[in-house]
Design brief:
binds magnesium ion; binds adenosine-5'-triphosphate; Helix Hairpins; five-stranded antiparallel beta sheet
């Protein structure tokens, strides 16, 4: 019985990915596995009975190292250098005590810390990135206020400059400001997702407002806009500000994809059987290739020179937080359609 336990324990010592030595109160090694014996350049049967401290000294561990303080009751965990200098590893010593607390011996454990080191580095990197993200979010938040002031004054200037050549410059500046604002809003949404603050919203009214907002953009690109709405759609429970951002991102993508003179179709439908409302934006652009389709919701994935790749990622976050779904599919003839469903509490 004892023999079989001994042999099982020996096999266990061999099986674990550690170097282990057990020694008595005098410091003589009682048992050791081949992994640790190998560190001392000895075979298991040659190392038994040897003085652990002597072996450590021979390996170049200085005599004042805390590894030598176990007999005073001080256990140690730390770098195994110079015991093993060829890979990052840790060593620890542990006391074996009798029933009355008397020291009966000790255990020395050596382990490869490569995985642990990689993990520590990954945690440090993640912490650094989180701090950078927070700083960027604070900075961008502060940038938004002066931007609103600039936009307000540019709009006033626009009125003054009606019918002059400079009007065109103001329009370019306003467009650039809108782009920056959109980028900031998406970034802040990414940094602080936040739970939606819902209230009953008239989806049709919201879409109509959005279309009016982008009227100048449609005219500038000579894009025709068709829209179709249900005769009656009960209020939908939405965070208006967040959902506005979803619609802006999708409409902007459609406008960017659609060539001048072509059209975009916005549809709002009521799916009574599913208790949901569906909004779809159908464009007549080039459509999306299979490979891109699998990645369009990935953060920072973009094929556009001036894109950030945050638009659709943010849309999906917001829609999912509302308990809805968003998907993109190519149209049979031309372009693609982005569809969103949102649960309608009042249908
Ligand atoms: N209507 C569309 N037609 C064709 N491709 C599209 C359309 N909408 C999105 N895409 C593709 O999906 C990618 C990701 O879109 P997303 O809105 O997330 O980022 P973006 O438009 O590139 O940049 P951002 O929205 O941050 O300015 C786009 O770069 C483009 O390749
Ligand atoms: Mg986009």
């Amino acid at each position: 019985m004892n023999n079989s336990i001994d042999s099982l324990l020996y096999q266990a010592l061999e099986a674990v990915p550690l170097g282990i030595a057990v020694f008595n109160a005098a410091g003589n090694i009682v048992t050791v596995n081949s992994s640790l014996a190998g560190v001392f350049g000895l075979a298991v049967h040659d190392i038994r009975g040897k003085d652990i401290e002597k072996l450590l000294l021979e390996k170049g561990i200085p005599s004042n190292h805390p590894l030598f303080q176990l007999h005073t009751g001080k256990e140690y965990t730390g770098s195994a250098d110079p015991l093993t200098s060829y890979y990052p590893s840790y060593v620890s010593t542990h006391l074996i005590k009798g029933n009355c607390g008397e020291i009966q011996g000790g255990v020395l454990v050596l382990w490869d810390a490569k995985g642990r080191q990689e993990l520590e580095q990954a945690v440090l990197k993640a912490e650094r990135l989180a701090i950078m993200g927070q700083l960027a979010a604070i900075a961008l938040h502060e940038v938004r206020n002066p931007l609103s002031a600039i936009k307000g004054f540019l709009q006033l200037l626009k009125r003054e400059l009606m019918k002059t050549r400079q009007l065109e410059y103001v329009d370019v500046m306003l467009e650039a400001l809108d782009r920056i604002n959109n980028l900031i809003t998406n970034y802040l949404r990414l940094a602080k997702p936040g739970t939606p603050e819902r209230q009953p919203c008239d989806l049709v009214e919201m879409v109509t407002e959005l279309v009016a907002f982008y009227q100048a953009e449609f005219q500038r690109k000579a894009i025709r806009l068709n829209s179709s709405y249900p005769s009656h759609l009960p209020a939908v429970s939405l965070d208006r500000e967040q959902f506005w951002q979803v619609l802006v991102n999708i409409l902007k993508n459609a406008v960017e994809a659609t060539p001048p003179g072509k059209e975009i179709h916005i549809r709002v439908e009521s799916l009574k059987e599913k208790g949901a409302a569906v909004i779809s934006v159908q464009d007549t652009g080039p459509g999306i290739c299979e490979e891109t389709l699998t990645r369009i919701f990935d953060p920072f994935f973009t094929t556009r020179e001036k894109g950030t790749g945050l638009g659709l990622y943010v849309c999906r976050e917001i829609v999912n937080n509302h308990g809805g779904e968003i998907w993109v599919s190519n149209n049979p003839d031309q372009g693609c359609t982005v569809s969103i469903t949102v649960p309608c509490c009042f249908l």
